[in-house]
Amino acid sequence: MEPSEAWGVRWEMAASPMAKRYMKVATAKQSLVCLAADRHTMAGLFDLIEAVGPHVAALKTHVDLVDDWTPEAWSRFCKVAHEANLLIFEDRKFADIGKISRSQMAGIYDIRSWSDLVTAHLISGPDIVDGLQASWTDVGRSGGVLLLAQMSSRGNLLHPAYTAEVVGKGTAHPGVFGFIGNGSRPKELQELRIAVGEEKMIWTPGVNLAVGDGEMGQRYGDPTEAVLAGSDCIIVGSGIHKASDPRASAKAYADASWNGLLQRNR
Ligand code: 5BU
């Protein structure tokens, strides 16, 4: 199937080359799954990528939670991810002023040199997006920012008025790839999609086939429902990496998300 057929209006409206790249990969793999690769060792990460690579379209990392992290091992890991045709998304949740966020993209982890996407809060104002974009330019690369418009955790402070401001500023900025929405609440997600319109991506954590409450305030919603409500990518962590058979689990999430997309565009 061609991406234009699978994605319909989103494909036509998406202005960002990174969004097009994601939709192509997702179509080729028939999977709208971003794996939250929250394993704490490099070996665990390599195992995971090998097991699930064919069934996921992107890889979400927390580079600072790996116990035995080294620049060499990480660069090998990113190479393997590229070979597996995965976008790399560092969920760093930047929140500082523009110039410091730009510097934080460098430093020991040098996120600007290997990330295709990063998350940011808009709490410090819109210049954070320019700071992050400048850091990719500094190394001759390009990337996209996902702004946190909602979160999946209970009691979070991203209230509707805040969400509306993030969406208003973010939709107007070409450096914004899209928004993080709450995958655990389809109704909130539908409202977010209406506010965002068709041009930008909405990616959603808080998704698990076992719907309900997770650890420490995490909340989970159903993958197909999230896509039907307007999510373009379900971010799944423990549902895959803690499963007894991560590959089979990744395939199950891929099918649930892909079926959701086909139903949505029917
Ligand atoms: P889980 O194991 O599927 O619960 O992992 C969820 C991942 O998504 C984890 O890496 C979080 O950092 C990330 N996440 C989230 O759970 N909720 C949010 O609102 C945001 C990110 Br933003």
Q: Can you walk me through this structure?
A:
The chain is of the alpha/beta class and 266 residues long. The chain is 44% helix and 16% strand. The protein has a single domain, classed as Alpha-Beta Barrel (TIM Barrel), CATH 3.20.20. The strands form two sheets. It has an eight-stranded parallel β-barrel, surrounded by five helices. Strands 8-9 form a two-stranded antiparallel sheet. α4 (42-52) packs parallel to α5 (71-83) and α6 runs parallel beside α7 (127-138). The model has no long low-confidence stretch (mean pLDDT 97). 5-bromo-uridine-5'-monophosphate (5BU) binds at residues 36, 38, 91, 119, 148, 151-153, 180, 205-206, 214, 218, 235-239. 5-bromo-uridine-5'-monophosphate binds next to β10 and α11.
Task: Name some characteristics of this structure.
266 residues; alpha/beta; TIM Barrel; eight-stranded parallel barrel; two-stranded antiparallel ribbon; 12 helices
Helix count from the secondary structure assignment: 12
Distance between the termini: 14 Å
The CATH fourth-level homologous superfamily: Aldolase class I
* Mean pLDDT over the full residue set: 97
Query: Biggest sheet: strands side by side, in what order?
Result: 1-2-3-4-5-6-7-10
CATH class, named: Alpha Beta
**What is the SS-derived class?**
alpha/beta
Name the shape in a single word.
globular
Tell me the CATH topology.
Answer: TIM Barrel
Range of helix content: 40-55%
Return residue spans where pLDDT drops below 50 for at least 5 consecutive residues.
Answer: none
